[in-house]
Design a protein that fits this description.
Layout: E1 20-23, E2 28-31, E3 34-35, H1 36-42, H2 45-54, H3 60-72, H4 78-89, H5 94-105, H6 118-143, H7 157-166, H8 172-185, H9 192-202, H10 207-218, H11 226-240, H12 244-253, H13 271-287, H14 291-305, H15 308-311, H16 319-328, H17 336-356
Antiparallel strand pairs: 1-2, 2-3
Helix pairs in contact: 1-8, 2-17, 4-5, 4-6, 5-6, 5-10, 6-7, 6-17, 7-8, 8-17, 9-10, 9-17, 10-17, 11-16, 13-14, 13-16
The protein binds acetyl coenzyme *A (ACO) and oxaloacetate ion (OAA).
Acetyl coenzyme *A is lined by residues 8, 222-224, 226, 257-264, 312, 314, 317-319.
Length: 382
Amino acid sequence: MADDLQKGLDDVLVAESSLSYIDGDAGLLAYRGYDIKDLAREASYEEVLYLLWRGELPDRDALDEFATELAAERAVDESVITTLDGLAAADERPMAALRTAVSMLSASDPEESDPEDLDASLRKGRRIAAKVPTVLAAYDRLRNGQEPVEPREDLSYAANFLYMLDGEEPDDVAAETFDMALILHADHGLNASTFTGMVIASTLADTYSAVTGGVSALAGSLHGGANQDVMETLLELDESEKDPTDWIRNAIDNDRRIPGWGHRVYNVKDPRAEILTEKSAELGENSGEKKWYDYAATIEEYLTEEESFPEKGLAPNVDFYSGTVYYQLGIDLDMYTPIFAMSRVGGWVGHVLEYQEDNRLIRPRARYVGPENREFVPIDDR
Ligand SMILES: CC(=O)SCCNC(=O)CCNC(=O)[C@H](O)C(C)(C)COP(=O)(O)OP(=O)(O)OC[C@H]1O[C@@H](n2cnc3c(N)ncnc32)[C@H](O)[C@@H]1OP(=O)(O)O
Ligand SMILES: O=C([O-])CC(=O)C(=O)O
């Protein structure tokens, strides 16, 4: 038995996967062999879901059939809306509301739970992916005192979410930008939330349990929660009215961890951040309000030249520019991480199914360092 401790499981191989390939030194990400840059430019989120779950890109007919089936599952049971309303009244965070709702969705799933039936698990995954946007849009409206908007089956996954959020059909730029953001966040190897889902599923718990665990793990600020933190940081910088380089110098001198920087796998700029940088700049130019992009770009330029950051392999990750993109689409800050979750359902379900094809209970061990051979003292004698 190997006794070397791998805290944080850095570089520990626990599974084989054909879903996403990452080269952290070259800044490369591919889903099932297709470069993320090509997928972001050419594909739709529905196509990417198909690719992740079935292994191949669909042809036109297969995509139409898949997208139609997905769209048909968008509505959620009224009991879910009632629960969301209660959570909104209690001012619950959207990520926590999502966690509760995903867990609750299993109650209205029409199929029995049989984790060993992988086709049924995929259908459950598809239902979750279809309903998460409905849950999130309804929650955002309820907490703002508005009625939820019913999903529409004739809109794409991305456009329908923005429609349910605002009650108005988004323009093409917003729908395409959002679709691209969903593609970029859909999968990323054995990240913490995907691994959480796999651990849960490896016990033969069902898809709802695995996805609920994924949402829970994604919420933290070291993982998906960083996108909201980035935008809060930029707003803090804006309010300070300081020069961005002075502000960031001060933050480093105060040992602040800069959200959206650093990654367990990448030592260079995340390829998704490259794409989001361009999108953020483009949206700013189109709207005439480039401030948010400019702040992020100035910080990037400064930190890239600041010795300690490149030395430690710290560069912008996917979260560094996504917040500025969502902000420019008018989305509330605390919806950014739930949107990440909406997209990552694709990866969670894909990895769980892939792992369950040849399932083995995941069970590492800890080195015991506590006291030994202690004499038990009855409670009244302590
Ligand atoms: C979708 C995603 O999950 S992407 C990641 C999103 N999370 C963030 O953006 C939060 C900010 N980033 C971080 O906290 C980290 O970079 C992580 C958690 C993502 C990866 O961390 P790890 O690989 O475990 O690196 P670790 O935390 O050991 O840091 C290594 C060194 O870099 C420093 N470091 C890491 N990230 C940052 C950062 N964002 N800002 C400043 N310093 C940092 C650490 O202080 C440490 O320095 P030291 O060696 O002098 O002590
Ligand atoms: O891979 C990771 O560790 C974090 C993650 O989910 C991502 O970058 O998309």
